[in-house]
Each structure stands twice: as C-alpha cells, then as structure tokens.
Amino acid sequence: MTYELTDFPQFEEVPQEQLDWLTEHLEIVEIPKGGYLFEKGSPIDHLTLVFEGDFELYFQQNNSRKSFGRIRKHDISGLLPYSRAKNAGGFAVAIQPAVIGTLNREKLHELIGKYYELTEVLVHEMNNRIRNITQIEVQNEKLIALGKLSAGLAHELNNPASAMVRSASLLQQHLKGLPADFKKVIKIRADDEAIDKINQFMYQKLEEKSSELSMLEQNTLEDDLYDWFSECSLEDRYDLVPLLVEYQFNTDDLLFVKSCLRDEDFNPVLKWIVQNMTTHKTVTDIKEASSRIETLVQSVKTYSYMDQSLDFQMVDIHTGIKSTLNVLNHKITKVGHKITTEFDENVPQIHGLPGELNQVWTNLIDNAIDALPKEGGELKVKTKAAGSFVYVFVEDNGHGISEEHLTRIFEPFFTTKEIGKGTGLGLDVAMKIIKQHNGQLKVTSQPGKTIFEVCLPINHNIEEENT
C-alpha cells in the first residue's frame, strides 16, 4: 500500500520534488494496537509522520497513568529541526493499529540543508508543539494550584462547619432537658431584689469572663467546688461543676447566690444559671465558627477579586498577602509550622493588578511552605517601603536551594519537585507578573535561610534605577 505525503495538510505548499525526496528516505513502520510509538526515556532521534492510527500520550504518576494528549493521523512528531529534546518524557501507546514513516537524524540534517520549504513546515510544527506543551503545562499548573487551594479551603471550612454541627446538636439536647427543670424554677419564691441581684451577677459572669486559668488553677477550683457541693449535699454536681469552672465560679460566688435565696430554691436556681451558661457557650461557639467561615469566604473573595475590575488599580498588598495566608493556612498549621509577619505600616497602596499579584504571593508562599523542614518550620513574610518602591520578603528556614539550581530557578518548566507536585511554571509565572509591573524578583539562599525578594514600584510606570 502506498502512503502519500500529499495527504498531510501541512505539506500543501511544499514543492513536489521535496516531498519525493522525503518519501524516498522514509522508513515505513507498522505498530499494532497496544504497541508503543515511544516510551519514557526513549531517544528522540527520528522525525515521525503518522499515516494511520491514533496514539495516547501519558505519563506514570504515583503508580497511576495520567493521559495528557493524543498523536493522531497526519500529525508530525518526533525529532524536529533545531529541537534540543533528547529523550521522551512519557509514553505514546497505539489505541488502534498504526502506520508511521520515520526519518533518522542524519537525513534530517540533509533536509535542513537542502529543502527550505519543507524545513519551514517542520519548524512551524515545532513552534506549534512548544505552544501546545506550554498550554498543557500552564493548565496543569493551574489545576495543581486549584487543587491545593480547594483542599485547603475544604479543610479550613470543615473544621468550623463541624463545630457548628456539634454545637447545634448539643444545644438541641440541652433544650430537651429544660421542661423538667422549668417545673422547679416556677416554684421558686424570691422577691424582685433577689432576682435582680442574681440576674445581674450571672450576666456579669457571662460577659466579663476572665483570662484563661492554668491547668493547676482549674484543678484547684474544681476540687474546691466538688468539696463544697459534697458538704452542702447538692445534687447534679458532676453536671454543674465543669461549666462553673469554665466560667470561673468559686465558692464565694455560690455563697452569694445562696444568700439571696431560700435553701430549697438554691439548687433549681443554680441549675438555671448553668443552663444559661451552656446556652451562652454553645451560641458563642456557633458564632465563632460561623465567623471563621465568613472570614474564609471573604478571603477567597478578596484573593480572587471576583467582583472587581481586572485592570490596573490601587492595591493594598497587605490585604492580598493576608488573604493568601488565610487560604494557605491549612498547609502552615497542620504540621505545626510557625508563621510570622512584619508589615510596614508605611507601605502605601501600589498601582497594580491585584489578582495577578495574589498569584505571586501564592507561588512564593506555597514554595516556601514546601521547603520547610518537617519539624521547626518557620515562615516569615515581611514588607517595607523605600522611596518610590515597596518590598516584600518571603523567608523560610528550609534546606535551601543549591547553587546549581539557583541559576535556573526562574526558568520555565524547571522544577525539583516530583511529577504531579509541580510543573516548574510557578516562579516563571511570578517573574512574568513582577516584570509586567516593572518590578524585580530576586532570591538568595543558604541552608536554613532562603529569601525571595519582590520589589514593586508604587506606580507600575516607574522602573527601578538601582538594580
């Protein structure tokens, strides 16, 4: 069977004599379904033309297969003019029987030297390949970043949401017991003065809760209350004492309440006080949890600038950094890392793109977190104003960046992370955004101290003179 190069739309403008030369030197190869066009590590030493078939591109990640594209009929692959690729980074497996034509490296050199139009087509294909790979990698970088943010938000939202569910359940159980106690409460005989004293005293305790007690102080107070309850032969001591301790009721407080009442009324009133404290504590817990959710939602809204203009505008970089830290908080706190911030109050707003700048803070802070040691990790974020410029420093006490890697760290696709954990575009994207603002991004590193320094002009039309 004859396979014609004129069937390839890419060769439409290539002179026939050049196609004849290519046809003469092609080696036709048949690949069965399940066979490989190339495997990871295979040398890239042939130009490949796909006459028939369809190949799935994939790489292995954590013992699983991840597809990232296709090579189809009439695609051009393999070695292309001026390409520096040496070995395949993944696999290409035939998902149907295929027929390919290959041209070895030596003949490709001859092609480049003699046939301009054919070379031009192949160079154009290489440019398309670079553009497609870049798009795939950028998309992967975005998906990885989105995955990290989504996981963090799910974790951060789950804690307060679970706390609200628990508190609501406890409150529901608590309210079920109120009818029985209410019978005793309505039998209480007390004048208005006594009622006002107890009410005022109780709400003062609820609203003016003192600083937290130490463990020793809590145990001492708990023992005193249990002893006092035993001497007074009061019931429900094991239900009442823990809440009384939390709100720091001591024996003098109980004696004060007791002095306002008849003896038979003291226990029902004390239970009523504890019930109010239980309700107050539960509602406070729900309020704090819902406030945390509100803060996270606001942080995401601020981080994404979802309801604001995407054009250059006046930006408070502290707001962006804080919202980024909120979004990434789970990564910082889940293993006990310490974070400190030193924000210069004199830092003015700058003229910039807030969403893009937040990408910079995310990439720098996320990389710093990944570099922290398993124990004793410390991340510092510092800002300062100097003249017409604002500086942001992101410092970690990780293992540092080797001198060999330090010279390449801002190169696109350069990464020291495992497959699936980074594409090597984070710092490249950060650098492009900083340059878009006429700023600078630098790094210094030694074991135990790596600092990324961002310099941004207050007005993006100003360029730094002292580099």
UniProtKB/TrEMBL annotation:
Which reactions does this protein catalyse?
ATP + protein L-histidine = ADP + protein N-phospho-L-histidine
Which EC numbers does the record give?
2.7.13.3
What superkingdom heads the lineage?
Answer: Bacteria
Matching InterPro entries: cNMP-bd_dom (IPR000595), cNMP-bd_dom_sf (IPR018490), HATPase_C_sf (IPR036890), HATPase_dom (IPR003594), His_kinase_dom (IPR005467), HisK_dim/P_dom (IPR003661), RmlC-like_jellyroll (IPR014710), Sig_transdc_His_kin-like_C (IPR004358)
Concerning PROSITE patterns, the annotation shows: CNMP_BINDING_3, HIS_KIN
Q: Which UniProt keywords apply?
A: Phosphoprotein
Domain Histidine kinase positions: 286-460
- Residues in Cyclic nucleotide-binding domain copies: 10-129
Q: Does the keyword Phosphoprotein apply?
A: yes
Its recorded name reads histidine kinase
Origin species, per record, is Flagellimonas allohymeniacidonis
CDD domains, per the entry: CAP_ED, HisKA
Q: Per UniProt, what is one GO molecular function of this protein?
A: phosphorelay sensor kinase activity
